[in-house]
Design goal:
Layout (H helix, E strand, L loop, with lengths): L1 H12 L3 E2 L1 H11 L4 H17 L6 E2 L1 H18 L4 E4 L7 E4 L4 E4 L12 H18 L23 E2 L1 H5 L5 E14 L2 E6 L2 E6 L4 E2 L9 E9 L2 E8 L6 H8 L17 H9 L5 E5 L6 H14 L6 E5 L11 H17 L2 H6 L1 E5 L18 H10 L3 E3 L4 E5 L2 E7 L2 H7 L11 H11 L29 E5 L5 E4 L5 E4 L9 E6 L4 E6 L3
Parallel strand pairs: 1-2, 6-7, 9-12, 10-12, 13-14, 14-15, 15-16, 18-19, 19-21
Antiparallel strand pairs: 3-17, 4-5, 7-8, 7-11, 8-9, 11-12, 13-22, 17-18, 20-21, 22-23
Helix pairs in contact: 1-2, 2-4, 3-4, 10-12
């Protein structure tokens, strides 16, 4: 009886009611589940119930039986997928439904690469809703609870919409607005959200940690007078760990891959991950294959690892040192073939390691719009024949290893964001901290205005990082760094292999540790 009561309460928390037959059936099913896995099973079953087309909030036994069957099938399916590389064009798209307070999966097929103009505003609207729902759940902004004692919620803040400002003729002070910075008229900045646009005065603004560019979403505090919002301070919206996100929305697989639920929920995958202590990823960026000195260093690298082959080598472009015009593609093909011959000298690496290639901004491809497709197959045919585990991925791409989610992005982003900042931070030595804070708060790995870094509007979801992955590889020609966060997410830049004394990073998934490595002369 206690089990059935707990089940009924769990469904009520999600706005659902169970018929007596359904609660009885579910009680019998979950009575065979261990106490450790009980809550996880119940959450997954409720999640699958939500995914079904419901005509009423009263759930019948048939619906529950279907959810239990799908959940059981998925448990077996997840256990067979320890390693996957996910294309940017295959990332599932979820939209936040403000009425239902949950994410709903988009089922649109044949998504257009070049859609109509409304898709552009929809792209920003979706990003705003993700940040808004996350912000108003934060302790600083959550509405006071009915059970709170007098004075307990005195430090709470209320976020106002732009329409609240525009609808007032009086002077309003101590306001906090969440909106996107835009420069609609030259030299004049505005704050925009889904309800309107208001001009802002940034002449006396204090900037908190972050690199604030146009099209960034910010929390702005100040006063509104005479149609202008005079901003006293600007900061990044608060972020949250992935586990907090999943506590609210269940084990939805936002990340992509064959699993229907988040792989972090798989105990079997976690066991495999912990047991495989020797697994490691070797991460290099700017691997210029046309330079003999780089090939010589790669030979040293492969020779050093051939006795203990890494699980994965991640090679990020650019793969050629400079533009060679019409000869660029043929030179790249020849360089990749030479790399294949070099790897073939070490059979242990060919048999045991995977090789992931992520194109850079100057590598061949159809335009320089994100996300970028993989290197053309006409250039990679021979290396794929010689190296069976060579994987040519999109930029960005996603890696799912056991329970871990990893994002790989190759772009010279730090310099671009600094050049396009509204105000450059005074602590220039701590640029990585400002940069990573901005990326995570924006739930987006490229928060630049579209005229600086164009994005396919319908595939902008491939650049979003919500929930936060376990690691984000931000391959950049900027100096090497590892920036840990308090949100269980590691952000790192391996640095330029060819320009920065042949430095690279080594990642150990079992312990989630990153090592700085370098090939000495």
């Amino acid at each position: 009886m206690a089990t059935r009561t707990k089940i009924v309460k769990a469904f009520k928390l999600h706005g659902l009611s169970l018929q007596s037959e359904a609660s009885r059936f579910l009680g019998e099913v979950l009575s065979t589940v261990g106490e450790k896995d009980y809550d996880g099973w119940l959450d997954r079953i409720i999640e699958y119930v939500h995914k079904q087309p419901l005509s009423s909030t009263l759930i019948s036994k048939d619906i529950v039986e279907t959810a239990v069957q799908e959940c059981s099938d998925q448990t077996d399916e997840v256990s067979d997928n320890a390693f996957n590389v996910i294309s940017a064009f295959e990332v599932p798209r979820y939209k936040y439904n403000n009425d239902k307070k949950k994410f709903l999966k988009c089922t649109t097929k044949n998504v257009h690469l070049h859609p109509e103009a409304p898709s552009r505003s929809e792209m920003f609207r979706e990003q705003y809703m993700i940040i808004f729902q996350r912000t108003i759940r934060h302790d600083l902004f959550a509405p006071p609870s009915a059970a709170a004692q007098p004075g307990e919620n005195s430090t709470k803040y209320r976020i106002k919409r732009v329409e609240f400002l525009l609808g007032s003729t009086a002077k309003l002070g101590k306001l906090i607005v969440l909106g996107m910075i835009a420069q609609i008229k030259e030299g004049k900045y505005y704050l925009e959200d889904c309800t309107g646009v208001v001009q802002v005065d940034l002449s006396n603004t204090k900037y908190h940690t972050g690199l604030f560019t146009e099209n960034c979403f910010v929390l702005a505090e100040g006063l509104y007078e005479d149609g202008i919002f005079h901003v006293d301070a600007i900061g990044c919206p608060p972020a949250e760990p992935a586990q907090v996100t999943r506590n609210y929305f269940g084990n939805i697989n936002f990340f992509g891959g064959p699993s229907k639920i988040a792989v972090s929920a798989s105990e079997k995958m976690r066991t495999i991950e912990e047991e495989n202590q020797e697994a490691m990823f070797v991460i290099l960026s700017d691997v210029w294959l046309d330079l003999p000195r780089v090939i010589a260093k790669l030979r040293v690298l492969f020779h050093g690892y051939h006795t203990t082959p890494p699980t994965l080598f991640i090679f990020c472009g650019n793969f050629i040192s400079e533009s060679y015009g019409p000869k660029h593609s043929s030179l790249l093909r020849e360089s990749l073939n030479n790399l294949a011959d070099l790897i073939s000298e070490y059979p242990s690496l060919v048999e045991c390691s995977r090789f992931l290639f992520v194109p850079g901004p100057r590598d061949p491809g159809p335009g320089n719009i994100l996300p970028r497709p993989p290197l053309p197959s006409c250039l990679t045919e021979e290396i794929r024949t010689k190296i069976p585990f060579a994987i040519f991925a999109t930029n960005p791409c996603r890696i799912q290893y056991c329970t871990q989610e990893i994002m790989v992005f190759r772009e010279d982003l730090v310099n671009k964001m600094c050049r396009n900042c509204i105000k450059l931070p005074t602590e220039l030595g701590d640029i990585p901290a400002h940069f990573v804070k901005t990326i995570i708060s924006q739930t987006h790995i490229c928060p630049l205005p579209p005229h600086v870094r164009p994005v396919y509007w319908n595939y902008d979801n491939a650049l979003r990082i919500y929930p936060l992955p376990d690691m984000i590889i931000l391959a950049d020609k900027y100096r090497s760094y590892v920036q840990p966060t308090t949100l269980d997410c590691i952000c790192l830049n391996p640095g330029s292999f060819s320009m920065n004394d042949y430095c690279f990073k080594v990642y150990w998934p079992s312990s989630k540790e990153v090592e700085d490595s370098k090939i000495q002369d």
